[in-house]
Specification:
It is built from 4 helices and no strands. With about 80 residues, the chain is mainly α. The longest helix is centred in the middle third of the chain and has 20 residues.
């Protein structure tokens, strides 16, 4: 059994045999839809509630506020505070 595991390719070297060409570098349609939904929800919540940044980040599935802030700035070009009304 140990010999079998020793010959197993690591996770970074494994590639399905049916794949050809380069791995995709852009977000899949599902990932893009998720990001769009997160962005729209964040902007809507900023404009309609007084939810804290940490609560909003957690509610949208981010591990922490800085990750949410980076994503928000990538989506909109502005920091989250610019959308707070």
């Amino acid at each position: 059994m140990a010999q079998t595991w020793a010959a197993w390719p690591g996770p970074c070297t494994w590639r399905p045999s049916h794949c050809s060409g380069d791995w995709p570098t852009k977000a899949s349609p599902n990932q893009a839809l998720k990001a769009e939904l997160r962005r729209d929800t964040a902007i809507w919540r900023f404009n309609t509630s007084s939810v804290s940044l940490a609560e909003l980040a957690a509610g949208l599935g981010f591990n922490d506020s800085p990750a949410f802030e980076r994503a928000f700035k990538n989506w909109t070009g502005s920091p989250p505070g610019a959308y707070r009304r």
